[in-house]
Structures are given as structure tokens and as C-alpha cells.
Amino acid sequence: MESYMEPIRQYIEAHREDMIRFWEKLVNMQGSSREKEKVNRVMDFLKESFEAEGLACRLEDSQGNANVLIVVDGPDRPGRPVILSGHADTVFPEGSYPEDPFRIEDGKAYGPGVIDMKGGITIMLYAVKALHYLGYGERPVKIILVGDEEIGHTGSISSRILMEEAKGGLCAFNMEIGRPDNCLTTGRKGGVDCHVTVHGVGGHVGNDFLKGRNAIAEMAYKIPLLQNLTRYEEGVVVSVDVIHGGTVSNVVPDLCEAELDIRYNRVSDMDPICQKVREVCSRTFIEGTRTEVEFLSPMPAFEETEANHRLLDYVNGVLTKNGFPPFGSIFVGGNSDASFLAAAGVPTVCSFGVVGTGAHTKEECAVVDSLFERTKMVTAAIMEINDYEANWRK
Question: Fewer CB atoms near the end CB (10 Å): N or C, the chain?
């Protein structure tokens, strides 16, 4: 076992209660992505917490949603930084839970964002604390925290800031939810939301039926054509998931709205599939109707690359010689900010946070012991990161 591993274990074990108290305070500060002031309160708390450890911190204006927090440990150290990333927002508005909802029962922690992803933030802070305890000073460690990941950064420039700050990084660990199957995520589908709006002409069904132009009927022509754009075996999915239209049963509907979820495995797939959606929507089946298309929250694919797998191999090499089981690799359909890190040219693995289940539900819970184990793992991986640059990142 490496000489640094025992001090890491000693430090984390000695600070278990401190870690839980910090995690508890963070979870109890409720706030969803669109509650800018509440998420900024969390960002201010985190800035104070990292500054208390001696890290250089600054808040960047996202120009729409909560601030982006940039934290650097050792900004004057040589070399490219190791990137740790995550988000401080949750899907739950304040009031979704009672006051101070964090609790631990039977070895599991519960509360809004306990895994998604305030556990991951706790790991970041205490990994840095452990590195300080060990006297680490090899290269910078940069932490990037956004406040609007759960809404895909809609209405802000957070994703742009994330990419700009990640550029030049040696490698990145995105601290999203740890998977129960003990896999790190080496790729994810990209995604974009699409809103289709058909404008028709209203009219009384009994008296003005021929004057009406049925927006729902026009949308009905388009839906199977949109669904048929799916090429599942190629990783492209177009799914019509929400429909709104009409007012009462005796009026020809003058408006119909549909919400689509579009997913793809490759960055190069995004523009072509969006263009095909536009082409379908540009066809008019009922004369006198008009269709609008809007694409929201585009996220590039987190492509599964050789560089990501080399980073995973490096991590597994560190873990196995220090007594931890190696991670598997998985490609998943859900999005995360790992996509923007990879788009910035940084080898990335995702899902390095606390292990748990029930994200985005009131049953969200985390395995408490995974908080301590993952902190040890991340700290160990950073301790040997120069070996990664010398032997793995080629």
C-alpha cells in the first residue's frame, strides 16, 4: 500500500462527524435551479467554506441564473490543473421538504440533493482538506460549481463559463451521483429539448367548422414523422413526450403545443437531427396552420473516448493497489455537465460522487459510508496524478 494511503484513511476517519455536519448543513439549505437567490445563498456558503481552507475563490455572474463558483487550490503551482466539478442546485424548490430535512437512518442519508449532488460537493471539500493534511503541492486543483445544471443552464451562460474554466485541465472528475453498480461513467448521450407549437384557426364546431384550422390535427400529422426520426441503433432518439391543445369540446383548437426530448450519442449528431425536426415541422398538412420550432438547453454528447478510458484505467490502477475494488465503465442516456468538460478537451469520468438512489424523487438517499470511501478514492487519485500525466495521458 502506498505511503500516503494510511494518512488519508486516518484523516477521513478522524473527520467523519465534521463531514456529516457539513453535508447536513448543505442539504438543509434548500433551493432549486430557478430560485436564484436561494442557490446563491448556497454558493456564498461554499465560497466561505473553501476560503476558510485557504483556497482562491471567485463568483462569476451566469447572466441569468445563480452564480458560478470557481475555486483553485494552489493557483501558483506549476502544471495543468485537476478539475473537480459539480452543481449546487436541486430539482426541489424550497418548501418541498420540511425545514431541516436531512436525516440518517440505517446507514442511509436522506434529503433534497443529498446525492444530486451535495454529497459530491462534500467530497470535493474534504478531499482538498486531506490533500492539505498530506502536504500536497504538485499542481493546481480547480473546482467548478454551477447553480443551474438541473435545468440545462437554460437562460444563462453557465455552460460557457464551465467550458472556459475547464480548458487546459489535465483531467476531470465530475462528482455526480455514484452508481450502485460500482461503475464510473465514461460517456453519456447529449440532449436537447424541443418545443413545437402549431397555430391554427379557432371556430365553433357547429357554426364555423369549415373556417377552423385544427391545430391538434396538424400536430397529429407531424407526431409519427417526428417519432420516426429515431435511429435507436445509431444512438439517436426523438421522443414526443408532452402534448397540450384545445380548450373545450365544441371549439376547433387554434393552438397545440408539443415537447420533445432529443438524444444522441455523438456531438456530430446534434445539428443533423435538429435540422430533420425542422424539416418535418416545416411541412404543412392543413392549409392555414403555421408551426414554430424552438430548441432549448442543448447539451453536447459526452462521447465515450479512448482518453476517458485511459483516465479510468489510471484511477483503477491507483485504487486496486490501495485496496479498493476497481470501477467498471458504463455509457448512459442521462445528461450531466461532464459533456461540457469533455467538449473543452479534457479527459473526463463522471459519477464519482456518493452512492445512492432515488435522484429527483422524495426517496432520494445516499449510502453514508460511500461519502468517506469516495473521498479517500478521489484524494488518492490526485496524489498520484503526475503519474497519470507521465504514463497514461498519451
Answer: C
